[in-house]
Design brief:
Elements: E1 2-6, E2 9-11, E3 19-20, E4 25-26, E5 33-35, H1 37-53, E6 56-62, H2 68-76, E7 81-85, H3 95-109, E8 114-118, H4 129-137, E9 140-152, E10 157-164, E11 167-174, E12 177-181, H5 193-200, E13 206-207, H6 220-223, H7 247-260
Parallel strand pairs: 1-6, 1-8, 6-7, 7-13, 8-12, 9-12
Antiparallel strand pairs: 2-5, 3-4, 9-10, 10-11
Amino acid sequence: MKIVVCIKQVPDTEAEVKWDLQKGTLKREDMDAITNPFDEFALEEALLTKEKYDAEIVALSLGPQKATDVLRNALALAVDEVHHVSDEAFAGSDTLATSYALAKSIEKVGDVDLVLCGKQTTDGNTGVVASEIATRLGYSQLTFVGKIVEIDAANKKIKVERNIEGGTELVEAKLPAVVSVLKGINEPRLPNLMGIRKAAKVQIPVWDAAEIGAAKEKIGAEGAAVKVIELTTPPPRSGGEMLSGDVDEVSSLLVEKLLGLKVIK
């Protein structure tokens, strides 16, 4: 069985967020970066599946040169193969263009049985890329998965538990499938020192747009359905107004101001 796990490098949400207001994009190169936290659960689930079903894991990451860090981390955790999908032509991609590039990359990997993704990324928070990949590839689509119950590779079937409002549902689907997993499906492991040292020496292969057979009009800003027209930062908050007087006076004044602002009727 062959598993592809999609992982992304995202800005550290605990660091200062920096914007390029002219381009309408994050200044990713000037920010601390980490593996998307949701993708860590997808990667761990791939590792657990490999241990249980003797699978092969291929990790893919689409992003700039700096994104190789997340692939080295995957190598340190003993995935079998990694590929960095990177090309200046991918700049300006939205979810539509991103899912297209990832789907083409998965097709290039070939003979894939299972694609694992995190539920969403912390930079975009759209939560739709996994579904778009499944649609493009014609794979079964399983979202909000809290547990992979069973995989029958011989009969090309997978059974999962999906978290829904008020409970869970047990779903069986055909392989190949794209599964987006929830936070808490497992406990992501950390790489050991030997794995880190070994991964540091690996030359990570790069797939550009031509390598994955991507059509120019479907990638980057040209292939994006959503375009940023303008990006502005919110104005600084002004100081609050202090009301003075006895309780009755302050209460009456406060009600008047709230009515004037149409906060209450």
